[in-house]
Amino acid sequence: MGINKSDLSFSKEWVSEMKIKLMRTYPSMSESDIEEKLYRIINTRMKDHPCLLDNNYLGTSRDTTLLAMTEFFAKQKPILAGYGVLFKPHDKSANASAGLLIESLDNRNKIKAERKKYPQGSYEFLVRDIGQGNEKVIANSYYGAAGADTSVFYNLYVAASTTGTGQALIATAETSFEALLEGNIKFFDLDECLLFIDRVVKTDMDMNFKVSNPYSDDMVKRVVDRLLSQFRDDQSNNDDYRTMLTTIVSNLSNYDQLRLYFKNNLYVFLRDVPEVKELLTILCSETKSFRNPNKVPEEIEDTITTLWQYIFHNVCHIHPTRSRIVRDSQHTRFATVTQDTDSTMVTIAKYMELMLSQNLTNQVAADNEDELDFICCNIMAYILTRYSQCFLERYCQDVNMPADQHKRINMKNEFYNLTMILTPKKKRYVSYTRLQEGQLIDPPMVKISGLDFIKSTTSDDVKSFFTSIIHDDILNVDEINVSSIIRKIKNFREILRSSFLNGELTYLNLVSAKEPEAYKKPYSQQAIKATIVWNAVEKNRLINLPEKIFIVKMDYKTEKRFNDNIERFGDVADIIRKEIFESPIGEIAKGGITVVGIPQNIDRLPQWVIDTMDIDTMVDDIISKFNPILESLGDITLRTRSGTSHMSNIIDL
User: Fold this and answer.
1) Domain boundary pick from 234, 263, 292
2) 372-399, pLDDT tens digit by residue?
């Protein structure tokens, strides 16, 4: 039996939404005519699509359709998790695993609260720090166990839905911050623009927070110009769109026009609205210090709450963005500078500059420029924290999450970074932190995340060299001199080459080598291949696995190349040929020699290693670890056909 499309909740909501849009666009049409045409479109043009509903608890599956699923969502209100996974509402079905997780998370919060009572570094503090860490491990381990088919907690969909939900939450945060701070959620088409107008006008407005219009020009044109500029493909010269939007905006009240202009237009709102400018001045003149946005000084609590209410009612647009995961990964960002697994980092630089330029007067109460800097920063942090509470609450409602669990989905402001160095790859950045949860960090803390030169395989001396450049030549200078940095790195290249030729171990990479049995394909592992070569030659100084070993690169992948360079191997050539290229183990013979392992208990590389190592690749591999930082500074790295990248003297302006 087919579905009556007109009776679907989805259809009725669509008709209601479209009817308002069309009545604003074509005010001469009657409501009944519009409604009739819309239902005709539903019955003649709406297409349904098949889908599969799989219940892995009961072990049953059945064919259904997307329209039938929308009706199921509307009536049954299942919890909508990521990856298209549905869960029963908690009040309809008990979930033992969820109960265990909630208990563990609650215990962790209690232990963290206890930890705050003791001095950092004290015995009591450390005991509780270990305790909260253990609870975190317990909670996170369920996620891993749910995705491991060897675990008693394994579930086909739970781990995937957790990953998908995390992705959806981060995308929600990113698009929401882009919308508020930069107005950077572009309309994909006219329908999205009309939906935006409809939502703004329909949103309730507390008239206690009505603001005066600071503009004397044509408000309709101002609003239409802004709307046209908000399309993904700028429509400022599209006469058809301009005519249609002018008709719609002209029929709005004066204040709805003003609200429409200020929605997702925070910078202009703070810059131009007299009531708001006055509040910002008061905030900077009534407190000497404001370091923690989660603990507002009592003397400014009422004022900053009032500021938030003005922003909430006139600027915030608490509605989910369509295709936000696609937008998050593909569109150009202006507010969100980087994202990690569970964090979103935004820039408020232009807002800081705006507030500092407005409030550098004798009325400022801060004792010094740093304190004024913190006040302005945390005014914005407070606004963004309140804003995040709103859009995350909306997310929880939209996915039918139990109301008593909404509090678990939250964001907190943790770090104030003076500077960040961003790289082309995600999760690789350098931050220069001045405040952490209101605590002053003096001197500022440098945190290097994800970059290859800080990984455990890199020698301490290489880490120290590259870290010193970040400290001395990037973060602690008034002006970055890229040419000077490149010269330092070129000098370091010669130091590396000289060190390797002298047989020193100082700059070699260090890797962990496990027993061969620990690997599914041991002879494809660099550490195993390296150990085999060393042990074949150095019978009196064997590497006994498991062990951490240094790695030296070589380039003798074929027996022909080995034979062409056999004189380099001297007395060990016959041993290498027999043990490697004539090995009865096919993977060893075919693999040739690309690495050799070096034990840590020797003082110098053997001469046969010095004579045969691929010194150019070894030097390039180390220098290339810093290439992401150079690229962020504008240096263009050149890539060869082998995949190796080299720094250049070309600067991207």
Assistant:
1) 263
2) 889 999 999 999 999 999 999 999 999 9
Alpha helices in 470-614, H assignment, sequence order: 482-501, 526-537, 559-564, 573-576, 586-591, 607-612
Give the whole-angstrom CA distance, residue 335 versus residue 266: 12
Our CA dihedral for 624, 630, 634, 635, rounded to 10 degrees, sits at -50
User: Do residue 305 and residue 179 come from a single domain?
Assistant: yes
Q: Tokens 């040419």 — which residue?
A: 483
Phi, psi for 339 (deg, rounded to 5): -130, 145
- Beta bridge mates, 447: 431
Letter for the amino acid at 343? Answer: S
The torsion of the CA quartet 365, 370, 373, 378, rounded to 10 degrees, works out to -90
Residue 3 in tokens: 């579905």
Is 373 inside any structural domain? yes
Instruction: Flag whether pLDDT at 336 surpasses 60.
Output: yes
Give me the mean pLDDT over the 32-36 stretch. Answer: 92
Output the pLDDT for position 294: 85
Clarify whether residues 108 and 243 are in a common domain.
no
Is residue 650 within 8 Å of residue 635, measured between CB atoms? yes
Residue 568: domain span: 509-603
Tens of pLDDT, residues 304-331: 999 999 999 999 999 988 888 888 888 8
| Percent of the chain that is helix, strand, coil (3-state, to 5) | 55, 10, 30
Report the amino acid identity of residue 263. K
Structure confidence at residue 98 (pLDDT): 82
Q: Which residues contact 407 (CB under 8 A, 6 or more apart)?
A: none
* Cα angle: 295, vertex 298, 302; to 5 degrees: 100
Segment 22-50 shows an average pLDDT of 91
Helices (H), 334-368: 349-359
Structure tokens at 554: 């070589």
Neighbouring C-beta atoms of residue 518, cutoff 10 Å: 12
Are 374 and 245 members of one domain?
no
Helix (H, G, I), strand (E, B) or coil at 186: coil
Regarding whether 281 and 232 lie in a shared domain, the answer is no
Residue type at 472?
Answer: D
Residues 199 and 308 in one domain: no
Q: Give, as one character, the DSSP assignment of residue 405.
A: G
Give residue 217's region: left, alpha or beta (phi > 0; psi -120 to 50): beta
pLDDT of residue 618: 96
Burial class of residue 324 in the structure, from the number of CB atoms within 10 Å of its CB (0-12 exposed, 13-18 middle, 19+ buried)? buried
